[in-house]
Amino acid sequence: MEAIWKQASKLRDQVARQQQAVLKQFYGSDNVFTDETEVKQHQRLEKLYISTRAAKHFQRDIVRGVEGYIVTGSKQVEIGNKLSDDSQKYGAENTCTSGNTLSKAALAHGRARSLMEKERNNLLKALGTQVAEPLRAMVMGAPLEDARHLAQRYDRMRQEAEAQAIEVSKRQNKVRESVGNGELITKLEAAEHKLQELKSNMSVLGKEAVAAMSAVEAQQQRLTLQRLIAMVESERAYHQRVLQILDQLEGEMVSERQRIEASPNLPTENVMQPPPSYEEVNGMFGSPRVDELNESIEYFLAEAIQSYRAESEVELALSAGDIVVVRKLSNNGWAEGECKGKAGWFPHAYIEKRDRVLASKVAHIF
Question: How many angstroms separate the CA atoms of 185 and 175, rounded?
């Protein structure tokens, strides 16, 4: 539409110039409407019209793009929250018998995913309130339409003035041809008066239209740039916060994986012999097999690196992080010790020796 409007204006100017040239050639008039100031004003207004229209379309494109992004992002938030719920549900209801490493990772992932979706939702709200709404208000606002109406009124008045200038030239030539004709002179004076009135009104209206369009153009440029910067800042802040969440999540998962990979292979029920009874250990039966299984050691402190569930009365249940006083070790993978006021056997692969233990943990051993 801008191209059509511009082309029509050029054609109209060409026709007016041709008419003026013809009239000047045949009627010898120098009073045809050829004000240089008015021509420059008209050209300035034409450029402002095209500029503000292009900016309006760009603002509308941004609004449509942001609205589409919000719709798509809202669907992604919904999918991400579902994934978060599923991860946390698995972590809370873990039924794995060989450890809880995956359940811990699932819980951590679920919590992190929930935080990321909250950040995404905040981003979508910011884009809507800080970008789409202000630009939409300006696209639909009155200042632009009022300025465009002034420009259109000026254009119509300019065409009327051009036509009146041609009419004045015709009447001037008739007066020259009929010297002393009072009626023709009166009509000429009336036409010239009307032309001067049109010129005066057109000059005032043109200045108002240029001022209004210039103000709208400046506001469009300023507001659109501000909203683009706000959009970039919102997206940048969102990605920074998500990166922090992902860095923390990755650190937790990698740390857990390294701990598991560094831990010794845990024994299974199929390969470990059952622990000896206390009667056998204390020598009540004097079994040679028991003497071979037990190794005399000095007491030491150890920390349970994996939870262990007792299977018999002579075994000691452990939770990860428990501090144990280890009193005996057997050659078949069992250790005997005391924790939380209870004593019993447990696989020594489930513990790690500690040279130093916090005093607050020692208090829970006995």
Answer: 6
Percent composition of the chain: helix, strand, coil (DSSP 3-state, to 5): 70, 10, 20
Rounded CA-CA distance 304/36 in Å is: 96
Q: Can you read off the two tokens belonging to residue 336?
A: 């005997």
Which SS3 state, helix, strand or coil, does residue 49 take?
A: helix
Query: Contact at 8 Å (CB) between 289 and 295?
Result: no
Residue 142 in contact with residue 95, Cβ under 8 Å? no
Q: Please tell me the distance from the alpha carbon of residue 25 to that of residue 68, in angstroms, as a whole number.
A: 61
Residue 335 to residue 234: CA distance in whole angstroms: 58
Distance of alpha carbon 360 from alpha carbon 265, whole angstroms? 30
pLDDT of 307 above 50: yes
Query: How many angstroms separate the CA atoms of 354 and 139, rounded?
Result: 71
Amino acid at the residue 186: T
Query: How far is 34 from 206, CA to CA, in rounded Å?
Result: 16
Find out whether 87 and 26 touch, Cβ atoms under 8 Å: no
The residue written with tokens 């003026």 in the block is 20
Cα separation, 263 vs 98, in Å, equals 14
Place of tokens 């669907």: 75
pTM: 0.58
Contact 301, 323 (CB under 8 A): yes
pLDDT at 268: 45
What CA–CA distance (Å, rounded) separates 242 from 235?
Answer: 11
- Residue 154, CA distances (Å) to 14, 145, 187, 207 in order: 18, 14, 26, 9
30: pLDDT strictly greater than 80: no
The H or E element that residue 357 is part of is none
Tokens of residue 97, six digits? 């018998």
Query: Could you tell me if 102 and 96 are in contact, meaning their C-beta atoms sit under 8 angstroms apart?
Result: yes
Q: What are the DSSP calls for 119-131, one per residue?
A: HHHHHHHHHIIII
Query: 43 near 151, Cβ under 8 Å?
Result: no
